[in-house]
Every structure is written in structure tokens, then in C-alpha cells.
Amino acid sequence: MKFAMCLWPLLAILAGCAAPSPKSTAEKPMPPAKIEGKKGTEADLASLVLTPEAEQRLGIKTAAVVVGAAPEYKDFAADLMLPVGRSLPVVAPVSGTLLAGPGPSLAVGSMVQSGQLLYSVSPLLPLPRDLRVTAEADLEQAKTRVDTANLRLARADKMLKDDVGTVRAQEDAKNELDLATSASNAARARLEQIQRAPLVADVSITITAPQAGVLRQVLSAPGQVIAGGAPLLEIADLRRLWVRTPVFAGEAHTLLTPSSVSVRSLAGQAIATAVAVQAPPTADPLASTVDLYFEIPNTNSRLHPGERVLVQLPVRQSTREFIQVPSAAVLFDIHGGAWVYEQKPDHRFLKRRIELDHSSGGIAFLRRGPEPRALVVTDGAAELWGTEFGVGK
Q: What's the CA gap between 209 and 116, in Å, rounded?
């Protein structure tokens, strides 16, 4: 009996510990975003479910998908090239020894400015017959003239001292001595120059950059003896490039040549808009193609001559039904695949793969995509992408 009386308080304490507290039974708050379906890679289809507050915070806006006729375009592979006349060679003006200019040495790929001093040339003199003998004879004549002038000055000083001469005669004798001394010094310097370097002149000719650009070739080095007209450098102006677009000659008449075209990388990313230019007509008889030329800006030299790109050309008098969505709704994954987010009921957003044909005027024209009148996300699409892969707000 006593044991039973002691057991009842113990059971009451255990029952009190096991009873659920109000805090533990409270419902957990709903997360702002929940991913349903497959997830983990960009190729997996998944849907996002947002709370109304999260949807408002991400600034989600949508636009309806429409289907309509639009001009048909074709993609053509093109290559970038230097425009004609934008690559200038720098040649030696005269024969001589090439001397380095101020600043660092010139190397292929370095940038130069218009008017920048590149080199200087010490011209080579023609070698006359008996050059050294003639120089020695000139020096001896100059020495004799100096001696004669000294004697004449001494005689004039003595005659003036004896009051039989004039001050003018003394001044003439001094002037003659100065001239003879100068001629002697010049003859001696010329003989030393001939003994040291008989073909090198004592003057130099500077060579400056005719235009700003990048050095494509460096064909000479300081200290080298060069001939007149020898190529020294090649400077290319890469601020604008030409887009050479080969088109099959049999379908050239079916294409329009617009004033501007959209240029994309081989991965499909937009680069810039190129404008049509007048260029020499060229063609390739082996490939049966004719060339169309456009000019594209090359900001910060991010494009390279010889690089392959894609150009879209409109087909003459041809339209096609396309699925049309705003360009802001299109997202690209790391593999170049194109996607959009389609809004579903109950704040659900489904990622849909699309097949992009071309973009123009802020509209993306799709070969395959969501159904007409479906709502795709325009503002906030990148935020949804980041939310799905763990880098969103």
C-alpha cells in the first residue's frame, strides 16, 4: 500500500514532462521560397513556389506570350578582319643605323599613340674616293692657315707697337686667326669621325607613329643597319573591325542587305550591332560564295581579327510564325541553353526550355516555347534563377 502511494506522485511527474508545450506545437513559419521537383543542375526542370511577400520583394513582373508573323532570318558564319587601310607599315626614310627611341622597347602587341617617337635613324653617308686622305689634307691646310694667321697677328701687334701699323690691321689679323682656328677644329673633328665610323652622319632622322594602334609586326631592332624604304613596323588600328560574311552565291538574291545586322558569338550571345559599309567586291570561286561586309565597333579591343562570329540576315519577302516574348525574359545557362520562367497559379513559377531563333527590337522570337497567352517573367527572372540555385535574394 505504501509502495502504491509513492508510485502515484512519480507517475504524475512523468505525465507532466511528456505533455506537449504550446511552443513546440506552434506551426513553423513557411519559407519564402520552396523548390519542387528535380533540382541540382541547370538542365533539371524544377518549379519555384514563392510567398506573396517574396514575390513582391523580388519585383516579379510578367508578360503574355504571343504568336505572330515576323521576318525570317538566317544565321551565317562570318569572320572579323582589319578594314582595308587600317594597317599601316612604317618604313625607313633613308639608309642608316637604327637607334632606339625614348621609353620601353617596342614589342608586338604593345600600343602606340599617334605621333609617338618610335626610332631615329643615323643616315649613312656615301663613301667618296680617298675619303681619309682628303680629310687629312684638309686638316693640314687648316693648320697651315692657323700658323699663317698667328704670324700675321704677331706682325700686326709689332707694327702697332712701333707706331707704324693700325688698329684695324690688328683686328683683321685676329679675325683671320679665329676663322683659321675654327676651320682647323672642324677638320680635326671630321677626321676623327671618319676614323671612328666613316659612313655614319652626325645627324639623325626621327621616325614617329603615323596613327594610334597596336604593333602587329616588329621587323627591325635598334643597332641594325637598314636600307632606305626597309619595313620597320606595322601598326594596326583595331578600334573598328569589318565583319566579312560569305553567302552562297545561289541564295544571295534571296537575302536582304540591311543597314545594320546583329552580330553574335558562336555561343549565341549578342556582341554588338554592325553597320553595312562599302568595301571592294570579293568572292570565293572554290566555295561559290560572295562576301558581304559590315563594320562593328571594337571597344577595349575585346574582339580579334580572324575571330568567327554569327550574323543574322533577313530573308527577302519571307515571314514566319514565331512565338514572341520580351528579350528580358530569356535566360541563358552555362551551356548556352535558353530558358524562361512561366508563371502558374498559386505563386508557382516553372522553368521552361526554349529554342531561340533571333532577337530584334527587345523581342525574342522563338521556334519553340510556352503556349500562347502564357505568362512569362520579365522583371525578376534573374532573381528567380538565383533563388533556385541558391544565390538569390
A: 5
In DSSP terms, 283 is beta-bridged to 290
Query: What phi and psi, each to the nearest 5 degrees, are found at residue 168?
Result: -65, -40
- DSSP assigned state of 125: P
> Among 279, 239, 248, 274, which Cα is nearest to 259's?
274
- Give every residue of the chain whose pLDDT is below 70, as ranges: 1-46, 125-133, 164, 194-203, 318, 361, 390-393
Fold topology of 33-71+320-388: 2.40.420
Assigned CATH for 131-196: 1.10.287
On whether the CB atoms of residues 359 and 327 are closer than 8 A, the answer is yes
Residue 233 has a pLDDT of: 92
Q: Which fold has domain 87-125+201-236?
A: OB fold (Dihydrolipoamide Acetyltransferase, E2P) (2.40.50)
- The answer, as to whether pTM is greater than 0.90, is no
User: In 3-state terms, what secondary structure has residue 377?
Assistant: strand
Distance from C-alpha of 217 to C-alpha of 231, rounded to nearest angstrom: 10
Listed residue (199, 191, 65, 83) closest to 132, CA to CA? 191
Model pLDDT for residues 307-354, shown as the tens digit of each residue: 999 998 888 776 778 888 998 889 888 887 888 889 888 888 888 889
Say if residues 227 and 95 touch (Cβ distance below 8 Å).
yes
pLDDT tens per residue, range 26-61 = 455 556 666 665 554 544 566 778 888 887 888 888
DSSP letters, 235-249, are: EE--SEEEEEEEEET
Give the domain ranges of the chain: 33-71+320-388, 74-83+238-317, 87-125+201-236, 131-196
The identity of residue 51, as a single letter, is: T
> What is the spatial distance between Cα 109 and Cα 236, in angstroms, rounded to a whole number?
10
| Span 74-83+238-317 CATH architecture | Beta Barrel (2.40)
Helix (H) or strand (E) holding 79: strand 66-81
Rounded CA-CA distance 30/335 in Å is 34
In 66-130, which ranges are continuous DSSP H helix? none
Give the whole-angstrom CA distance, residue 258 versus residue 274. 10
DSSP states of 260-292? EEEEE-TTS-EEEEEEE------EETTTTEEEE
